[in-house]
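User: Second chain of the day. Same drill as before.
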Amino acid sequence: MINFPEKLSLAQTPTPLQPLDRLSDELGGPRIWVKRDDMTGCAISGNKVRKLEFVLAQALAEGADTLITCGGIQSNHCRATAILGAQLGLKVHLILRGTPPDELDGNLLLDHLTAARVSYYPVTEYQHLDTLFNQWQLHYRNQGHHPFIIPTGASNGTGAWGYINCARELADDFSHHQITPSVIVSATGSGGTQAGLTLGAHLFQLNALVLGMAVCDDADYFIRKVREDMRDWQQQSSVSLDIEKIEIHVNDQYIGPGYAKATPEIFSTIRQLAALEGVILDPVYSGKAFHGLLQEIRAGQFDDASDIVFIHTGGLFGLFSQRNQLGLS
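Assistant: Same format as last time:
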């Protein structure tokens, strides 16, 4: 019996596990299933909400009235935090990497719509993220507020519970559909989703390899980061698990030009899946990871698998700001 910490009910779960039969037939490989975590909500859709259910429960338990977090200009995590903060009556301050755009679009539009305070920093300053967090934390304390810092993507030991919980759902999904997937694939951008899935796969005996498709840094970085989150989780949990013996699997071959930069081939995959299955991906996370999965299938890397599960981590709003690259008239 696993004792989960307190969490808030913020996500619409359990999410569906949907087969992509037309695409699977077209590829001629294993049957592809999608865990529709893009359906965890409407404006707060995506994987970040699962993690924030646990992280924000901790924030409220500590008496926080102000949330400080960070990300890129089109951060899904920042958008989810801004909206959930408004729902919970909390102030939200976003530290964003980059310069202010000419117009508000996508996730950034929703950040401002929910009245989050936004501070933009060029990469040279953003690299000193701990200093920025400390600066704003002190600022709010001096004003009599109780700030709570949420790391990038809500990826830490507390946030890992979100995808341990998802793994529990997957165990029920597999039983319901009578399938035994050998691989679970997801985008990995801050490491927390992969950490939770990797832990959950062992805790709930899914007997499936968890593969993170890197969208920015290389495999060595993510192996270290996921391990750090797993260690952080173990320090605060009472679960007995030898995490040092758990293997962490990362594919870093489909990052492309860099974070939030997608190639024409990735936009082609996004168009293909939308037209064939009615599933919408984004160019930052899910589109890049799914494109990598399809390439690996075509290369015969999963010929021994009968079923593969892809975790759709959301990101719809990030697609809007790159709509000009979709090649639509």
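The chain has twelve helices and ten strands.

User: Great, on to the next one.
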